[in-house]
Amino acid sequence: MDDERARALLQDERVRVQRLLGGADAVGRSDRQAADEDAGSSDAAELLTSQGTDDALAAELRDRLAALDRAEERLEAGTFGRSIRSGQTIPDDRLEADPAAELTVEEANRS
């Protein structure tokens, strides 16, 4: 995959993840506010569960942004598209589907 295409894929994915993270953060704030207002009611447990789910989603999205950062670093270092474990080439179709891929499909399935 050429560097220009890789940059475009990484940028598109970053925009998508940041948009999702913004939404997750807004929902999390809303759930926290609702839990604070409903403290002591039977609905508070449901709101706290929802808050935990929101937090987990936001953490996953932040992890995804970190993976995109690492992919951009590999692009700048000239190692983008190679497995961080074996150095084998990661096929373009895998990178199209997941531009932050760090392993070949076979390596990821073994993990």
Short recap of the structure:
By secondary structure, the chain is mostly helical.
The geometry reads as: elongated
Helix content: over 70%
The rounded distance between the terminal residues' Cα atoms is: 25 Å
Strands, count: 0
> Which residues sit in consecutive blocks of at least 5 with pLDDT less than 50?
none
Q: Quaternary status of these chains?
A: single chain
What proportion of the residues form beta strands (DSSP E)? under 5%
The largest β sheet comes out as: none
Work out the helix count: 4
Which sequence of SSEs, written as H and E, runs from N to C? HHHH
* Mean of residue pLDDT values: 86
Radius of gyration: 19 Å
Structural class: mainly alpha
Chain-wise SSE layout:
Layout: H1 3-37, H2 43-77, H3 92-97, H4 105-110
Helix pairs in contact: 1-2
Describe the fold and architecture.
The protein is mostly helical. It is built from 4 helices and no strands. It has a domain at 3-79. It has helices spanning 3-37, 43-77, 92-97, 105-110. It is elongated, with a radius of gyration of 19 Å.
Features:
mainly alpha; single chain; 111 residues
